[in-house]
Structure prediction request, 262 residues.
Amino acid sequence: MSRKHAKHHEEHADESWLIPYADLLTLLLALFIVLFAMGKTDEKKFGEMGRSFNVAFGGGAATLFSFNQGPPVVSPQDAPPQTTQLNTSLMSPSQTTADSQAALRETVQLLQVKEAVDRYIKAAGLGGDLETQLTEDGLRIRIRDSALFRSGQADLLPESRVLAGNVAKLLAGLNQQIIVAGHTDNVPINTAQFPSNWELSGMRAVNFMRFMFTQEATLKPANFSAVGYSEYRPVGPNTTNEGRAKNRRVEIWILRSQKTTN
Prediction:
């Protein structure tokens, strides 16, 4: 009897994995609470939730969720949307769980920042000038150049400084890398200050970033960088006035620090 009893205990399955997976379920619950707090659960927000799960878990073998998302939201590299999946083929359960938990925490944080920026946009009546989007790369805040600069110039308009200051306060406390990117249309410029659109887009990004530092002392300069993309990353056709207006913009990217292994 004693030998049979010992053999029974040796063959008993190791259930230590239950504890980290219980923590993962707690984080999932937190994510649902944040999304519920964002207000109406319309199709757009369900789509954002589906993409957030996809970023947190990566691609792989076991399909967890699938949403009818409508028109997809894509990253700057135009990566196609995926069905949310959990990859367990290359990592141990504990490693997979730890990475997924870290990615979920960051997703919850970025959703909270997005909601704060969206509330500011609505309260200030800036829906035509600012927009936010959560992607696989991070949270993007897009600002039309007409809300910030005069045509062909890189100095912030007096009225745009309030906007820049409020955005700076919304970025306070973040530890992610943040890129401020300037974009132009394809209309050539050739002045003493700006020989081309490269200089114009780069200086606009630098000036916007510098002003944010003057408005929020807790921002960490080591986490920031400014870049000018000139006319080479358009979001609209440069063949129409409307398309060119969309292309003239400043984008603030809060980059995800937690990457999952696909």
